[in-house]
Amino acid sequence: MEPIMALIVGCLYAAAIYMMLRRSIVKLVIGLMLLSNAANLLIFTSAGMQRGAPPLIPEGALRPEGIVADPLPQALILTAIVIAFGVLAFAVVLIHRAYNIIHTDNLDQMKDTDT
């Protein structure tokens, strides 16, 4: 399963770089979203693809019983998803505001404007 996930991560990184090199600000934001998802999948894959119980300790025990999943990558990915959602919401509002003022989403025209 890891080689398939490595290919998926590579394809997501390639698509993200392609989208970020386009001259549209909307495509730039889509590329950033793809880059964020690729990084999350990379963390998930590097943690190991194994089945395990939730990392909960039963009452009266000192450690979990059996094989448990590692909670650190899960916490990192959950935090990254929340941060990426906040950045995406801010970027959408910023793009909408810039489009209303400049009337274009082309980055070259945004750079040359005097408004």
From TrEMBL:
The keyword Transcription regulation does not apply. InterPro entries: CPA3_antiporter_subunitC (IPR050601), NUOK/Mnh_C1-like (IPR039428). It is a multi-pass membrane protein. It is found in: Cell membrane. The chain crosses the membrane at residues 6-21, 28-49, 75-95. Its main location: membrane. The keyword Electron transport does not apply. Keywords: Cell membrane, Membrane, Transmembrane, Transmembrane helix. One of its GO terms (cellular component) is plasma membrane. It comes from the Bacteria. Belongs to the CPA3 antiporters (TC 2.A.63) subunit C family. PANTHER family: ANTIPORTER SUBUNIT MNHC2-RELATED (PTHR34583). This is Na+/H+ antiporter subunit C. It comes from Nitrincola tapanii.
